[in-house]
């Protein structure tokens, strides 16, 4: 699809890094790459926020590269099982990892892993940067975030917050929220955000903080109520949903990002082929609009920029875990 000035203005307004890239040349390491399906491993079950973002992203990247890209869900231990698998896979571009900042900063809670994200991964590119949503069951009495905080203060230790597991992005966002609001709410980790969300809909947990991509269907169907977003500003897809800062907790902000990575040692030409393809899709396909529909922000960054961001975020997340006393349940 040819570039259009309107699309370029849209992407610039969303804070993306639009890259006008020609069709990538064949790689020197493997002139036929990719010549067979690529497998993208995700550390969460189907239906979770990362999985929901991954499927449209890699369908379009596969179309661009001319091969199928298969999603391989390997849930458990904050994505560490999936990351360990990819880190030890052949560095040939056919086994990749897609995760969020919580996956890549996993050493904040798990310092003795058999892999290291900065040592054992080569980064391809960033896809999103955006807020999380705070939601409650549709029949829950709290109609606003202030109502929820008032209920938690009146019933300390009686409300539960479900998450996709200890040490993930929602867990950190929750602990920061609980600490700033001085609330006693119990964290209930699940083996993935999808199962936790099912219990939210059923009322077995009273709140969740997670990506809106997970909650979109339930919210639109009236099964859950989104009370606030964790970003500094409102999202254009949910103009009536306030930020946490607006809704009663001044100064609160928490954002996440997602990125694609390959095993360390993957030939630079293959990494470039993947990075070029991802950058092309982020600029020239409808993927940015799909991402916006999930109340996230499309944000492309190169593999080198992802590594720089991770160095900073890994340090800040480790400090946050120590200051807030966040531990793996």
UniProtKB/TrEMBL annotation:
Q: Which CDD domains match?
A: PBP2_Bug_TTT (cd07012)
SUPFAM superfamilies recorded: Periplasmic binding protein-like II
Signal peptide (from-to): 1-25
User: Which residues fall in a coiled-coil region?
Assistant: none
Keyword Flavoprotein set for record: no
Keywords, A to Z? Signal
The lineage's top-level taxon is Bacteria
Q: Which family does it belong to?
A: Belongs to the UPF0065 (bug) family.
Official protein name in the record: Tripartite tricarboxylate transporter substrate binding protein
The scientific name of the source species is Paracraurococcus ruber
